[in-house]
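sorry for the late reply, my laptop died twice this morning and i had to redo everyting from scratch. anyway the thing you sent over, i finally got around to it. pasting the sequence first so we're on the same page, its 420 residues, then the predicted structure underneath. double check i copied it right bc i was rushing
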Amino acid sequence: MSAEAPVRLPKGEFEGQVQLVVELRVRPGTQDELHRALARLIEATRAEGPGCVRFEVGTDPTDDTHVVGYEVWRSQADLDRHRDQPYTRRFLDELRGLAVDADEPLTTSRWRPVERLSPARYSAVAGPPAAPASAPPGFEHRWYSVEGLSQHCVVGGSGDPLVLLHGFPNTWFAWREVMPALAERFRMVAVDLRGLGDSARPAGDSARSTGAYGVVTSAEDIRRLIEALDLGPVHLAGQDFGGSVGFALAAAHPERVRRLAVLEALPAGPWTAPGAGAWFAAFHTVADLPEVLVEGRESPYLDWFYTQFSATTGVPTRQAVAEYLRTYGEPGAMSAAFGLYRGRAAEIAHNSAPGRPPVPMPVLAVGGSRVFGSAVAANLKHGAQDVREVVLDEAGHFLTEERPAEIAHLLLDFFAPPST
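ok and here's the structure:
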C-alpha cells in the first residue's frame, strides 16, 4: 500500500526484511468502493513473487472506515519496486478520492521483523489467488460488523426479506444463479457463515474447540445480523449446513422466521441416531488430524466432494470451484468448516432443549434424488409441524447450482404464494 508521496520512506538497500504497518481512513459511504480497490491491489501485490513475503489487510471490527495493512517485504529494494508499480500508484490515486484527508490518505510505520518470516502461501510458489467473485447484477458485497464479528454478505433486490445460507464446501456464491430470479420479489441477504467465505474468523475463537464454529454459533450470528439490519421476521433458505443453521435459528427464535426452506440438509436433534453420517463426518470431528492431513491439499480434497455429490456434469463449474478454493485455502478456513461437524453434539442439545416445541412455521424440504432425496422431509418431520416435501429427480447435493431455475421457482412459490 506504500506510495511515494505522502508516504516518506527512505530508499535504498539495507539488510533484512522490511515490515510495514499502514493505516487509512475513508469517508463513510465509500467502504464498498474501497473494498473493490483493495481487492485489486491485494491480488496484484500477492502476485509479485518472492519480494512480497506477506501482504494482509484488515478492517476495524467496530469502524469499517478504518483499515490497516500489514506488509512484509524481502528487502527495502523490493518495497521500493512495489511502491513504483502502476497498480500501487493507481490504488493511491483511488484512495485520495475516498480518504478523509486527501492530502495524506494513509500513514505508515516501518519495522524490521525480530525473526525472518517465511513467505505466505499466496507467494509465487503457490500461485497468486483469484480475485473475489463479482456479485450478480443488481447485488453488491457488504461487510457488517455485529458484536465483534465481521460478516460478509451479498445484498440486493427489493421486497420481503430473504436470508440465504450456504453449506460445506461452498460459500454465498452457491446462490448466485438463484438470486437474480428472485430480485424483484425479495430483498436478499446471502451470508457467508462465520469463518467461511469472506466472513471473519475471530482471533479469540478456537477453531478446534467443540462448537466454536458450529451450527448453534452460526444460528446466533444470523439472529444478530437480522436484528442489526432491522429486517424483521425473515424468510430463510439454507442448503446443507445452511439448512441446519436455519432450522436451529427457527427452533430457538420462531418469531424471527416467517418461513423456512431446507435444501439437502438433515438438521440434528433428539431424533438423530448416534454415529449417523458418512465417513468424512466422523473424520472431520477428530481433533487436529484433519487440519494436518488437508493443509496444502484443499484443492484435491474438496474436489472429491464437488465430484462425488453432484449429479450434474460440470457442476459446480470451474469458476465456482476456484471461488470456493480462494477462501477455503485461507489459513483457518478448513478448521472453521470442520467446526460445523465438531459442533454436532451442541446442535443436538440445542434442538432437544426441554419444552421446545416443533418449529411452527411452514417448512419446505427439498432433496436431490441422487443424494438425500426424501430423507430431508422425513428428518424435518421430527422437528417441524408443517413440512412440504419436494424431491428433484436425478439431482445431486448442490441444488442451487445444479437446478437454479427450479430452486428459484420453488422458493418464489413457497415464500410468495400467489394470492387467491
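The two ends are 59 Å apart (CA to CA).
thats about all i looked at so far, will dig more tmrw
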